[in-house]
Amino acid sequence: MTDALFYYRNKEFLIPSEKTDHVKEEKKEIMAQSPIEKIPMEEGSKAKKVYAVMSGKGGVGKSLVTTMLAVAANRALQKKREKASGETATESVASGSIAILDGDITGPSIPNAFDLHGMADSDGQLLSPMVTEGGIKVMSINLLLQSETQPVIWRGPVLSSAIRQFWNEVHWGDVDSLFIDCPPGTGDVVLTILQSIPVDGIIIVTTPQDLVSMIVAKAVNMARLMGIPVIAAVENMSWYECPDCHTRHEIFGKSQIEKLAKDYRIPHIAKLPIDPSITALCDSGRAEEIPDSFLEYLSGIIEG
Ligand SMILES: Nc1ncnc2c1ncn2[C@@H]1O[C@H](COP(=O)(O)OP(=O)(O)O)[C@@H](O)[C@H]1O
Ligand SMILES: [Mg+2]
């Protein structure tokens, strides 16, 4: 075992709760080693709320959940705007917007779900996010590459610097809620996101079999050590309903989300079924057509 691994083993780095003093000490130590210097957005932009969507590992539906949260928030905003039409519309309702920062630089999947292709505009200093048909602002590495199939072969520090630029070198404008689709796990880029961006809350996405392992616990503990609240846990692919007999099958095993929420004191949980029609919508760039009935599974996670 290397010195570093030995150190962490002895310090019980993977800790289940914050109750004990040694956890508080550990937290202080981490903060001291890597002080959090939140970076402001560029002068002409501001985001009222920033949410990061994390997971223990890839392929659990993080990008789907980010997409759904943004689409739901955008629908709510449009409704508010319609209601407060004309003179009664407050300035913030009139000028606000919903945004997605695609933080998964090596596996970007947000632009495709919204049928956004080509290159984002730039005025030489700032980049402009691309805007979906429904009005959601998106920035992703795929909107900066000459070819969508070009791989990004960068090491950690370059990836992290790209994330910071997505935050403060993009003219986001007036944003009500900005959702960050994090890369899977608890690596370098996620650390940069949680350290440099003023994230208000984290949403953890899991699948039932994922919860059996300790991978989710790592993500929850990382959030905790960074001092950012985990506001919700979403269990994706929780069940599949047979279209013929309407029986629910727990394909990936029994739901474990209640236990996770209790153990880690996560205030809100949500469960999503497996629904091939949703995959089809996202794969064909029509994420904004996800029906309200499916978005409702996530209701209550974010305010407004
Ligand atoms: N509940 C679901 N029902 C059907 N398909 C899903 C569901 N959740 C995710 N998928 C599909 O599974 C794949 C992986 O999901 P994705 O959101 O890209 O995962 P991640 O971002 O965590 O890697 C995508 O093709 C997505 O459309
Ligand atoms: Mg993804």
Structure characterization notes:
The protein is of the alpha/beta class. It has one domain: P-loop containing nucleotide triphosphate hydrolases (Rossmann fold, 3-Layer(aba) Sandwich). The strands form 2 sheets. The protein has an 8-stranded mixed beta sheet with strand order 3-4-2-5-1-6-7-10, sandwiched between helices. It has a two-stranded antiparallel sheet with strand order 8-9. Strand 3 and strand 4 form a beta hairpin. The longest helix has 22 residues. The N and C termini lie far apart (49 Å). The structure holds adenosine-5'-diphosphate (ADP) and magnesium ion (MG). Magnesium ion binds next to helix 3.
List keywords for this structure.
8-stranded mixed beta sheet, single chain, Rossmann fold, binds magnesium ion, two-stranded antiparallel ribbon, alpha/beta, disordered N terminus, 304 residues, binds adenosine-5'-diphosphate
